[in-house]
## 1
Amino acid sequence: MKVQALERASAGRQTPEDVCAEQSVAEPDARPPELLSGPRAAGELGLRRGEFARAVQLGLVRPGPRAAGGAARFTRAELDRVRAGEGYPGALRERVETVAGADAGARALGTGPSRFTRLARCGHLTPVGYRINRYRAVVWLYLAAELREFAAREPGMLSGAAPPEDREMMEAKADLCPRRWRGRHVGLLLRRTADPWERAAVLASVLPEQQVRQAVPDPAERIVLAALAPPPPYGHPQVPAAAAVAGRLLLAEPPDEVHWYRTSLDFALTGARGRRNSTGERGQSNSTGERGPT
């Protein structure tokens, strides 16, 4: 292309300046973008580790290509995009701020702990994360901004008698917190990928092993799904006793919830297998919305 451009310039149809301009368009800089580790990206955004992890979880900071070992990396262009957001950095910190437990949640909501507990267990509030305390009890985390928005949107829920549906659920000792959290967790993971096998792996990760074996009888496909399975969420404990408690939160339990994810997995696998057959993807072996079932 460069030789042809110079020949046209010599024939009087282009000036040397035109040639240079053409080369700047035809041969762009092919250098790969600079990729930063998670800790460095957090530091450049002025966020603490937990704040940064929550921003990534919520899709406020989008990871770039992963490192060879699988660790997330972030482009400088993405950090520049985040910094250019309105109200940065205060607005970003407000969006990722969390409160833990009923007492802190009640203060953010402007009500009492017992009412907060009822609203959470009856599914009116959705946790964004969890931690396991020293007594091996689950402490749910909530986005402070969402609690404030709920208080402004539903002031009638903060006082007065509970509706009949809530009273029935509390009498039955129901607790929708784990289920609501799983729906949010799966939805956020699905939003981060368009790859059909990765989406299937997300759905398989919340199903009991027996359900996965029934849905995926091919061992080679199960290996693919296991390799693509998402890691435990940020804050998942490493101590075995606490990890065992937290591990139960990762799997669907009520029959109707299991059925919902199983049906979604069947649908995702149909699409993934069809794409493999047409393009050869994941060829070693013969998607849903933001929230899961609530």
## 2
Amino acid sequence: MDNKQTPLHTGFNASTTATEALAGRDLSGMQAIVTGGASGLGLETVRVLAGAGARVLVPARDPHQAQAALDGKAGVEVAALDLLDPRSIDAFAAAFLATGRALHVLVNGAGIMATPLLRDARGYEAQFATNHLGHFQLTARLWPALRQAQGARVVCVSSLGHRQAGVDLDDPHFLRQPYDKWRAYAQSKSANALFAVELDRRAAAHGVRAFSLHPGAILTPLVRHLDLDDLRRVGALDEAGQVNPPPQSAFKNVAQGAATAVWCAASAQLEGMGGVYCEDGDIAALVADDSMGPGVRRWAIDPEQARRLWALSERMTGVRFDCDAA
């Protein structure tokens, strides 16, 4: 495997904020779309991108709630999108393409984590369907606008949780095996990273580069499905059920958690690069598969696995994602 996972030693670290990661770059004239942009890390990502001059569109399942969260932010729009509904994805993308705007930044940040077993109308497991398949279809439908930008970035928000499992290409929806909410989440996050690998391979010739990232551990609405045992498992609570303060925990605040997504979306340090997994404002190191620390595991950046996942995603969504199409 050609290993592009070599840290750049950017000068950023886990305490870097999203504003600092942007490094004063002017994004005037750029168009961004940020899924999950109405809460948590996405909201901070939107705030920083818009504050730097970008025009930002935030798709949301509940546009009224999103509008309330984003009220008063200049240059920010809201539209309806449900990543579990293929028709909703197509309608959102068609409406955007109809504006004629180029798309310079697409942050695929919406997601769900460690849910009870849920299935969409197709019978697909909800974490895989939301976190990966929905974003695969969305990116495919927005491809003409990304290509039109003549220099765009797709940022896929993965997670260190990918270390628990790769993608089971034979049974991704837990039809023949017992459901495990953490394994399902890990699979979806490995899929996010693999999608960035294959998208970058196919899209780089058209000026579109793709990245995946671990934002860091942050307490956001993403943890809504976790019970006390789950929160202890991820290090958010001590044995007495109290929130672990720094430095006992490695949790970031929201400004720090959004930093790597903003860095991937706009940093000049990544010019001419793509297809890499990032963390703490830098390219992450490739680590041993059994490592329990930071870094990316081989299965999440494996080119052959990425190609197979792409083909499977096309079959499951019924969407042919041809990057060479005009």
## 3
Amino acid sequence: MRKLILLFILLLLPTGCEKGYEKYELKVFDAFDTVTSIIIYERDENEANKKLLKLKEKYLELHRQFDRYNNYENVNNVKTINDNAGIKSVKVSEELYHLLEKSVYYNETISDKVNILIGPVVDYWGEYRDLYNTGHSKDEVIKKLGSAIPQEEDLIKFKSLVDLDKLVLNEEDKSVFLKEKGMELDVGACAKGYAVELLCQYGRDELEIASGMVSAGGNVKTIGEPVTKDYYKIAIQNPENIEDESKDPYITVLNIKDNSVVTSGDYQRYFTYENQRYCHIIDPESFMVADKFRSVSVIEEDSLLCDYLSTALFLMDYEDGLKLCEDLKVDAIWFFQNGEIKSTQGARQMMEGVK
């Protein structure tokens, strides 16, 4: 799964534990196109390791369901749906059905800046990114694809393929049908957030984990409170200082608990053409890449909503995004192209050292 993004978020965790608790961590390298850290606090090492393995198994299961690039035996996933576009409906798991249903609901009620049928457009831009990032020249790209960068007349052909009215969700049997051949679901704007949300729910409700967190690239969700402090400290990286170790690597440090932080940015997956950066986040109306911000971080309890909003806000004007946050009562931090940082009042209150 390629949530083609994101800012790396550094987890600043307590180094010592009280009441007999210790920190236990497991890393997952083969899910959602990122390295995921699963951290829990437990008194017993054997019990902790058992829980971590169960969490990993659950996380990999969700990855297989939400994957649009690979098929798996006995799994109907996003790729299965795409493979059957214009052919037949596909029965899917409760988790995948809910992800699609919720994404459509958010599109209709919160913001239409995220469209889970954007797959063909993402893939088209991806062809250019792959060529430029493997050293191909402008002339070579033009020879292979017909233009140096995607042109409006080339992009317009995808209009019929991103019509959400052509996505049929059947609640009764949890089936999904794409009406037109060539349609492609891409749930990269929300799948990882939903997987992290489900994983934390599973850890808390089924495994009785009282304290921990999951960090999947730019998606972080905490479970309960840290065992030694009042808050978890989540540092959000400064996209301009990634390669310069002499500069402050972070925009800010947030103090949070029982909450999610999701960041979308322009510097994990992009290509450069004539000194302009073309990132992976694409406007579903114009089919052009976003260029308003370097990053947008959203803080909200529900990691799925966080993930959706981080992409939506990245594509919206700041004033419209701020109004949306106020209406939804969620918090956000915007890092502009010129280095300016703006945030909601609630986010400022979470920032360490900021009044």
## 4
Amino acid sequence: MRETPTAQPAAKAGELTLSPAQFAAAGIETGSFIYKNMTSDVQANGMVDVPPQNHVSISAVMGGYVQQVKVLPGQQVRKGAVIAVLRHPDYLKLQQEYLQARARLQFLRQELQRQQTLDAEDVGAKRKLQQAQSEFQNEQATESSLAGQLRLLGLAPERLRATSLTPSVSLTATIGGYVKAVNINPGQFVNPQDVLVEVVDRSDLHLELKVFEKDIARVQKGQRVLFKVPNSGLNQELEAEVFLVGQTFDDEARTVRVHAHLHNTKVMLLPGQYVAAHIQTAGARHRTLPEEAVIQAGELSYIFARQGSASSHRFRRYQVKTGPAQNGDVAITPLEALPDTTQLVRRGAYFLEAELTKGRDE
């Protein structure tokens, strides 16, 4: 009975020859190195964030009782929209004081004009004119101060009349966006230091990443960032671009904050979501092979090359050093000379490794 031919180790170590049947069954494909720009990555974790000016905490200028709450968490609001109504007697008192100051200012203005007329005719005393000027300026400052306080409350002092005093004031959204939190309910008394409602504008989402001290020198403005949001259910890898590299360290974690603008702003991301990212730093041109063409054996890596003519079934194993991997390809540095024209095994390397090992064991 005729024996099936098997691969036999060649005379040199690390070489083997396949039979035509084995070569066909293994599906081996050969080709040369392909030169590619391979980037190295810096791993970073962080969160989706917004600039400080896009996250607003709304508080009451003066304490009061919550009369109405107009929004719910998650609701979209426009700039200037009423989010709550407060009520307190002090609001009435402030309006009363302003109207009294406005009336007194009008009287003092007329009195000053009379004293200026008398002074021009050299009839009145200089002291009365100076006193009128002083009282007018003092009351003018009081009226301006009270008008400013009313504007902070959202009331228009120029429209205020004695018959239109109100014990209620409205709190409005200073930016448009989504309501992040509502910390009040009707009947509650709130103080000026209390945060009543938080509004977030998602129009300028970005990433705030933490990069370790040892890697920060490789990170620069304009570099590409690929990231995923593990807990969002989104499996796709999203893109961003570094626009700011921090200049100070977090002393405890020994990290630097890096900010990146999102490329796809239509993806539903929320401020505060955790992200896992890798920043693609400056790359270099490398010889590359597919990852399946490289045999990993502990700390060593190997590739196979065809020996002889294009129809030869004899192969030799070469030790190499691997570099960064990208899109299924890995950078290769041979530890002995290999011309660019060398026919390398791009597919089927693990079959050759198994046959080589089997032949050595036998």
